[in-house]
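Predict the 3D structure for this chain.
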Amino acid sequence: MGISLNDEIRRLLDGRHFAVLATINPDGGPQTSAMWVGRDGDDVLFSTLAGRRKHRNLERDPRASVTVIDSEDPYNYVELRGRVTAIEEDVGRAFDTGLSWKYDGRDPDPDRPGAVRLILRMTVDKATGYAA
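Done. Predicted structure below.
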């Protein structure tokens, strides 16, 4: 069971603010990805393609950190630490399309043929930063 997010953290997750996901590579080193994020209650949601490094890292070790930076005030940010508790297929790319409209105002570019789009759900255990 994760923590409850405050209103400022929810605002950052719900807005058009970019995030950086950090995962752990097999050798123990960090791997980061700039990305779009969404929210479901107090869980952070993000999208990726099956087989990408972040997906493989999180399948092996679900610990992750997501830093969300306020696009209007970069000194306002939050780092959310937790675990990916669910990975499921994004059937029909509904979630990915919603993120694309949130960030780009249009449908997403097509994935490569045969690609499987995933939704990753992170339960937050700790929040730090200016917005926390």
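The chain has three helices and seven strands.
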